[in-house]
Amino acid sequence: MDERLQNLMNNFKNPQNYFEMEDFTHKFKKNNSNCGDSFELFLKVNNENVIEKASFTGKGCSISTSGFSLITEFLIGKKINEINEKDFLDFVGVSLNTNKKKCLLMSYESIKNNKI
Hints:
By secondary structure, the protein is α+β, with helices and mostly antiparallel strands. The protein is 41% helix and 22% strand.
């Protein structure tokens, strides 16, 4: 199995930053009514609008869970208004079909229209 695909699966089996952050400054929700996936993303953003911490809770398919796990790592040190879909997909590094890509991008979609 490709190393990046294995990383995606590892993030499903052992998600990073899976907890409800108590000191969050921003909270985003994302649901997919077609499949029942439902997540919350928590961010702690400092006075310079830099993301210091990120976590998530919820449940969903392996790809959407992996997407939320990976975005918590991707966002650290960035400003929300500086992130974009292409950079996140490059960070993940796995090419997926359209339906699976939608699952992966749930995490990105949860914040894209709510930029700080």
